[in-house]
Every structure is written in C-alpha cells, then in structure tokens.
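Can't paste images in this forum, so I'm doing it all in text. The chain is below; anyone willing to post the predicted structure tokens underneath?
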Amino acid sequence: MKTPLLLLHGALNDHHQFDFLIPLLEEDFTVFTFDFLGHGDAGLAGEHLNTKSLVEQIAQFTQMHHLNQFYVFGYSMGAYMAYLYHQAHPGHVLKLYTLGTKIRWNEEVYNTEQRNLNSELIKVKLPAFWDKLNQIHTALGAPKLIEETLFLLKELAAFNYLSENLLAAIEIPVHICVGEKDKTLSVDECEWATRIIKNARLEVLQDMPHSFEKLNMNALAHSMKQFFLERS
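Text version of the structure:
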C-alpha cells in the first residue's frame, strides 16, 4: 500500500506548481495537494491571510481525506506551514522534505520582501509574471494576494515561529534542501537548522536560485523518493 504524500505549494503559486512533479511520484505515493487560502481559486477564511488559518487548512484537508499518517513535501511557504502543522498536530507527519524555505524571519527580512513585492513595480518590470499571477489567482487577484502575502510575512517577522526550541523538539526525519544561489534564504541558516533538528539532513543544489520552475523535476523526484522511501 502506497503512503500518502502531501505537496504544499509556495506563496504566490497554486497546486498547479506541481503538475510536472506529480506524475513522477504517483508510482510510489498516493499524492495529494490543494490551493492554500487566498491562492488559486481559494478565498480567504478570515479577514487576512495568517499562519493559524493556513495550518488549520492543512488539518481540515488531511481530516477530510482521512490522512492519518503521511509524508509532506513543502516548497517555501508550504514547508514553513508544514513545520507549524507538525508542531500543532504531532504524530501525523512521518517525514518532511523542505525546499527553499526561509526559516529565520525578522523586520529586516520583511522590509526586503516588502520592497520586492511591490505591485506597481512588478507590473512594470515583470509584466508577464504579473499577467500570470492574475490568471492563476482568480479568487483574490494579484494585487490583493500580494497585499495578503505581505500581511502574512509581517506576522512571520514579528513572531519568528521557527525558533531554536521548536526546531529542537522535532523528532521526525527532515530533509532541508536549498539552492546555492537562493537570495530568499541562506545556506548558513539551513545549516543552522540542520544542526538543531535531531534527525535532519541538508542538500544544497548547485547554481540553483529560489525559483521552483527552474528545478530539474526528475532530479527532485529522485531525491524525494530516496528520502521518503529509505528506512528510518
């Protein structure tokens, strides 16, 4: 019987981010995914996008699909929420594979992201990306989703949930993967987290930026299978 594998997408993306990855995994896993609140055609559950509602959404989805124990792959925001889900609902996630996930947040990091996530700037400098955002996110539209994403990131900066104590309490196997040229997070902070989590390993992808779309999907699927299917 195949173990369920839940794929959690990143901010400003939707479940279609995994369209090319899923076929490479279905022989070994029963794959599940969904759109986070505010993304794709999913509206907001409350006034603003926040960690509590996103973690609760994971819980509701897994309960609805009767997923009692499962693997999780999370990209960027998806893995951050997986960490918080595992803290709030221990015993369900068997293994966690994270990719491109910013671990340490503060006001300085938020200010950098705020400058990057400027709707007017994106419209002018990245018109194709802007059009894609509006095509994908039919529930909120690009301007509103960017606004809500910044609201979420401000929360992460204020509380920095992935503290040393939280990471040290994680007992499940964790695979931390980061691109060598990822400007969103540093290899150093990933090394820091790998040292703290009891059963963690680190993989650095040479010459890779943060962009999920630039990944070699066959190589990623192979790495995921090695991690999830090996005996712990």
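The chain has one domain: 3-104+162-229. The CA atoms of residues 38 and 44 lie 5 Å apart.
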